[in-house]
Request: fold
Amino acid sequence: MQHDLESKGLKIVGASLEDSAAAVAAYQHDVRKFDYDVVVGDSGLKSKFAQAGLPTTYLIDREGKIRDKITGARDRAGWEAAVKPLLDEAPVASQKSD
Reply:
């Protein structure tokens, strides 16, 4: 989906709160290569998001605001229904200060 919608601005970033960077890299090498970036969180993030079910997805708009929190899996049609309205929003033009 990222490849199909990246021209509209979709960027997928995975996050691992349990594994080290080395463990994520080993998983990608041995099991499955991700087509998106994966960041590794620390214990502070783990405690902050520990109450969230897995997987948890945050939809973040072009301005960096969390627009939706989705717990659990969805099929492609479900993800597109959630993501496409945000992608269809026009980017906010930056304002210049004099």
Q: What stands out?
A: The mean pLDDT is 84.
